Each structure stands twice: as C-alpha cells, then as structure tokens.
Amino acid sequence: MEALRTSVHPPGTTPDAYSDSATLALAAGVSLEHFARKHSLLPFYRTVSREGDAGQRDTYSVETIGYFGTRSSRQSMAIFCPECIKEDKASPRGFAYWRRSHQLPGIPWCVTHGCQLANSPDGTKAFDAMPFPEMDAIFEFSEPEFIEVSTNPIIQRYASIAIAFLNAEVTTPDIHAQFRIAEQAKKHNLRVCIQGKRPTLTDRLLEQVPKYWLRTLYPDIDKHSSTEFFYPIDNVTVGVTAGTSYVLALASLFDSTEEALNYWQGDIEGLPTERKVQRSFGKDYWSSTEMFKLYVEHRGNYKSLSQALTISPSYLRPQLIAAGLPGLGLVNMNTTARAVLDFQTGMSLEAACESNGASRDEVEKLIRIGISKLSTAINEISQSNSIKGSSHQTDDD
Ligand SMILES: [Zn+2]
User: Fold this and answer.
1) What range(s) does the TniQ domain occupy (predicted)?
2) What are residue 49's DSSP bridge partners?
3) Which helix (H) or strand (E) holds 374?
C-alpha cells in the first residue's frame, strides 16, 4: 500500500495526504466517488442518509469515504472464500482478488459456493497482497454453528437484503427509514420508544437468531436485559444508526426479502409528512424521564434539542410545552430563572422579580408555560367532574 501510495501521487504532493481509498481510486484511474460506490462497503454502511444529504449518493464526502473507506469499519478482518480463490486461480485471469461482498458483516458464507468464509490471521494487513490458495484461514463458527447460522431464515434474509443495499444506487433519508421501521415494528406489537414494557426489536431478534451470531455484529449484546432499550439496534425506530441495524430490522420484520425491499423502497401512505413521522416518538415520550434528562442536558434549549432528536423545532415546541417544559434558550438564568425559583419557594411574584432584577413579564411568561401540564390536568378533571355531576348529582355530596 505504501509503495502504491508513493507511486501514484501527483508530483508536488505528499503521499501521506492520500487515504487508502484515494490512493486506490487514483491508481485505478476512477473517481473517488465511483470507487467508493462500486468497490467499498460505504453503500451498505450509509444506506440511510442523514438530514441534509437525503436521497443522493453524490454527497459522499471525502471524510466519509476516508472513514468507512475500502475496509469494513466494524471488523479488523480480511475475509475470503477458499473456493473462490481456487476458481480465480484456474481462470484465464490467473490470480485471485478480494471481494467486497465477503467483507459484509454478519454473512459468514460465500453466496456463490455456500461454504463458510475464512478470516486471515493477519487481519486487514492481508489486504496488502492478493489472496492465494495456501493462505492461513480462521473460521469464526464451528461446523454445527455454521449450519445453524446459514440455514436460519432471518439470517438468510439479512444476507440478501445486505447485498441489495450494497448494490443500491440511492439512499433512504433517515426520517423515512425511522418511520418505515417504526410503522412495521408496531404491526408486530413491538415498542418503538425508549421507555416502556413491551418487547423491543432486540427482544424479537434474540428469539429469531442465535445469540452467538448477533454477538459478531453487536459485541455488547450480552449487556442487554429483556425489554431494555438496546440502542445499537432499537435506535432504528427513534433515531439514526448504522446500516447493519436497518438490514437486521427488515430481515426480522418481513417474511421475504422481496416484501422487505418493496416496503423499503415503495410508497407508504402518509410518508413523508412530518406529523406522521413524529408520531413515532409516542405521546408518552415527551413526559418521560428520558425526555426530562435530555431537556436538562440541553439546558432547556429547544433548538439544540430539536437538532439532537433530528426533528423540527416547530413540532418539538408544543410537545414540550404540553409536557410542562418551557424553552429556556432565551431565558436569563441569573434573573428570570432565579425569580421563578424564589416564587416557587413562597415569595410573592413582585418580591421575587424585584430581588432578582427580573422582568415581571418574562417571569410570568415562564411560569404560565411551566404550569401548562397542571392546567391540562385541571381542565380534564373539571370536564370529567361536570359529566359526573350531570349524571350522578345526588352522589356528589
Ligand atoms: Zn466462493
């Protein structure tokens, strides 16, 4: 790799300035973009695009390519199929090459030969040379494990969806991805919010696939306890995560690859309206402890919160106000906020404002928004009282 780097770099530039991907693209005479699309795992890892680069493959930045690059980012292994190498050698070409589909995480078999893929004990260093038949091989799974994994229908679906994503030309915007998975998960009665008692996608997967296979994708899976939200996987329904989790979700939630891909790429009624997408946050989410912690962490700043949750501030605002959490982004914490605290602990409004040098209007506004949850409750109580009152008048005394 170093020799190649030195030989391809244009005169006057330092070879160090080139990533492996850029060096290989330059050596092959193709654009970095083309190289990343056709010869790296980037289309798989970035199958879901973040806000701002929605729906386009053209937005691969040099940094992204450098990061996910030519090698699989999640594993330090160089993976090959012994049978493919034998065939390559016997072909008119006369030499074997590394295949990107073999490097996809979670697919331990060769799609052409069906045999278990081998890892090189040299790790990614092995990529520096062409693969050859006598290469040392390490196998991840024992024979019985391999049979169990390769005949598991969910893992088989995972494999075919992963390969489809690898060859796809377009990405799915994150907000659509989240919506699609959440809608489908709800049909299977799974929980699509952080807090709750219903099982999550992770719980479902643990019933569908062997844990030792899932562990190769998510080493932390052993820390997961039943019905607890496991972010690396369950975040597909509430935020953005890596490509692997979307593939896994689709494989788990559909009975066939075709069905899963049609759903993923097809039109869904109501998509992509903001309201529907955001409904997947769930009504209880805004009043949850999780939300309260986030609110504190972001110092009550709606703008910062809406960015963290990748949702619009215009949607976030009424939800948080209804939950009794006013926006503190513009509130003076030394005057207005202190006056509110003093008022709460028993001072009169006038005295609280005066002693903190706060504007009465500002303080009043904050208090009014702050008690919105209480007023909703009072309204509901009085409504139910009036219904009760009209039908059971005599019981009220
Ligand atoms: Zn093969």
Assistant:
1) 18-117
2) 173
3) helix 372-391
Predicted model pTM: 0.64
d(CA 318, CA 327): 10
CA of 117 to the centre of ligand 1 (A): 8
Q: Are 260 and 275 in contact (CB under 8 A)?
A: no
pLDDT tens, N- to C-terminus, the chain (397 residues) = 777 777 777 777 766 666 777 777 778 887 777 777 777 887 887 778 765 443 344 445 554 555 444 444 445 788 999 999 999 999 998 899 999 889 899 999 999 999 999 999 988 888 888 999 899 999 999 999 999 999 999 999 999 999 999 988 888 888 888 889 999 999 999 998 888 889 999 999 999 999 999 999 988 899 888 888 888 899 888 776 778 899 999 999 999 999 999 999 887 766 654 434 444 566 778 888 888 888 988 889 998 888 777 777 778 888 898 888 999 988 998 899 999 999 988 999 999 999 999 999 999 999 998 888 888 889 888 888 776 555 444 444 4
Give distance in angstroms: CA of 83 to centre of ligand 1.
Answer: 5
Ligand 1 centroid–CA 80 distance in Å is 8
CA of 118 to the centre of ligand 1 (A): 10
Give the distance (Å) from ligand 1 centre to CA of residue 85: 7
Cα of 101 to ligand 1 centre, how many Å? 10
Q: Which residues surround ligand 1, an ion (CB under 5 A)?
A: 81, 83-84, 110, 112-113
Query: In Å, how far are 26, 57, 147, 239 from 234, measured between CA atoms?
Result: 39, 26, 27, 9
Q: Among 77, 65, 3, which Cα is nearest to 35's?
A: 65
Q: How far is CA 357 from CA 333, 334, 338, 354, 366, in A?
A: 12, 9, 10, 5, 15
Report how far ligand 1's centroid is from the alpha carbon of 230 (Å): 34
Tell me the three-class secondary structure of 282-297, residue by residue.
Answer: CHHHHHCHHHHHHHHH
Ligand 1: distance of its center to the CA of 86 in Å? 9
